[in-house]
């Protein structure tokens, strides 16, 4: 008979290693905890998870209805940076800490951001198409219209871990980096060689605008039509954060009307996009399938981290990362080390 039961919905939101919970269980077996699968629908999950000691949130949203039905749950753990699939307010009200993995795939996302920036700037997709279509001679004339990268300005919206890693990568290219983040001290930006700026300054001064705001209700559609109109007509917009932070209809209009030159996107409002999404047919858009965090270490790192977080809380200790630290104050967990309270996804 296990000492603790961790309930998780059947199925996986993303994986490369197939099913099974061997990696998560490395930490859980030592404390007598086991992972049990439950139906992948709200009603079925509620019935199965009522007496769970912990929830491993994966393939269905952890709604207020689910959270309020939990009678003894000590923690909800996510194997992702983003936490928008969990009703954080409901979890906090119940005193249930929610953990994520905010520092596991920083380097990969930063690499992908720079890849999209450079691919959009040097018109990689367009150049590839010219070669394949026998239009070799058109390649050089197209790039003769593009300025030199060094000396241009990269503007970051939000200055969390990924944005800081992007800044480190951008500076050797000769880019001037500015950032907007009202929750980060200006001295921290300065330590990274980044100039603090207002949102308006980032939009109007930047040749590249890179979105890194977390997926939270307060930043839903943070960028809309009025913001794209403030950007340079030559600007390239990059988003490896969350699609919901941008009003996609406005972004599409900005590209159609020529308010900005290009969008390089790893995330969209609806994923996967519908077949009639205008972005799919636009040469002024470079798209990838929400893959910025992916690498060979992806599954192992995130699964082991989930297991460790679950084991810590079930053992009566604070987790390493907590997106709702107010919930920890309502528990009897022991603070064994400083908890990460940094804000959410791809921030």
CATH architecture descriptor text of the largest domain: 3-Layer(aba) Sandwich
Structural class: alpha/beta
CATH class of the largest domain: Alpha Beta
Helical residue percent band: 25-40%
As residue ranges, the low-confidence spans are 338-347
Q: Give me the CATH superfamily of the largest domain.
A: NAD(P)-binding Rossmann-like Domain
Write structural notes for this entry.
It is a single chain. The chain is an alpha/beta fold and 347 residues long. It has two domains: 4-104 and 296-328, NAD(P)-binding Rossmann-like Domain (Rossmann fold), CATH 3.40.50.720; 106-287, Rossmann fold, CATH 3.40.50.720. It is 34% helix and 14% strand. The chain contains 14 helices and twelve strands. It has helices at residues 22-28, 42-49, 64-69, 88-93, 106-121, 124-132, 139-143, 161-170, 186-191, 199-205, 225-230, 248-257, 298-314, 325-328; strands at 4-9, 33-38, 54-57, 76-78, 98-99, 153-157, 176-180, 195-196, 208-211, 236-239, 262-265, 285-287. The strands form two sheets. A seven-stranded parallel sheet has the order 8-7-6-9-10-11-12, sandwiched between helices. It has a five-stranded parallel sheet with strand order 2-1-3-4-5. Helix 9 (186-191) links the parallel strand 7 and strand 8 (195-196). Helix 1 packs parallel to helix 13 and helix 5 (106-121) crosses helix 8 (161-170). The longest helix is centred in the C-terminal third of the chain and has 17 residues, at 298-314. The chain is elongated. Mean pLDDT is 92; it is low at 338-347.
């Amino acid at each position: 008979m296990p000492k603790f039961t961790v309930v998780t919905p059947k199925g996986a939101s993303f994986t490369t290693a197939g099913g099974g919970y061997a990696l998560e269980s490395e930490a859980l077996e030592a404390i007598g905890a086991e992972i049990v699968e439950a139906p992948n629908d709200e009603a079925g999950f509620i019935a199965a998870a009522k007496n769970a000691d912990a929830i491993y949130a994966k393939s269905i949203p952890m709604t207020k209805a689910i959270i309020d039905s939990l009678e003894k749950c000590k923690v909800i753990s996510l194997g992702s940076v983003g936490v928008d699939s969990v009703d954080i307010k409901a979890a906090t009200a119940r005193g249930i800490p929610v953990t994520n993995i905010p520092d596991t795939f920083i380097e990969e996302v930063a690499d992908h951001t720079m890849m999209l920036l450079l691919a959009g700037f040097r018109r990689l997709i367009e150049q590839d198409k010219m070669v394949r279509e026998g239009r070799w001679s058109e390649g050089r004339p197209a790039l003769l219209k593009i300025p030199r990268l060094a000396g241009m300005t990269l503007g970051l919206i939000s200055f969390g871990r990924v944005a800081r890693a992007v800044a480190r990568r951008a500076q050797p290219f000769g880019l001037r980096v500015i950032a907007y983040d009202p929750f980060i001290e200006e001295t921290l930006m300065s330590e990274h060689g980044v100039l603090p700026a207002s949102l308006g300054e980032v939009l109007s001064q930047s040749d590249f605008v890179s979105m890194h705001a977390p997926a939270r209700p307060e930043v839903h559609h943070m960028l809309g039509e009025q913001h794209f109109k403030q950007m340079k007509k030559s600007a390239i917009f990059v988003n490896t954060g969350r699609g919901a932070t941008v009003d996609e209809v406005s972004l599409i209009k900005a590209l159609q009307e020529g308010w900005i030159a290009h969008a390089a996107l790893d995330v969209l409002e609806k994923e996967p996009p519908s077949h009639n999404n205008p972005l799919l047919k636009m040469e002024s858009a470079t798209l990838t399938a929400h893959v910025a965090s992916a690498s060979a270490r992806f599954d192992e790192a995130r699964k082991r981290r989930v297991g460790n977080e679950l084991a810590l809380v079930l053992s009566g200790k604070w987790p390493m990362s907590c997106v709702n630290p107010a919930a920890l104050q309502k528990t009897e967990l022991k603070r064994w080390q400083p908890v990460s309270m940094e804000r959410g996804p791809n921030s």
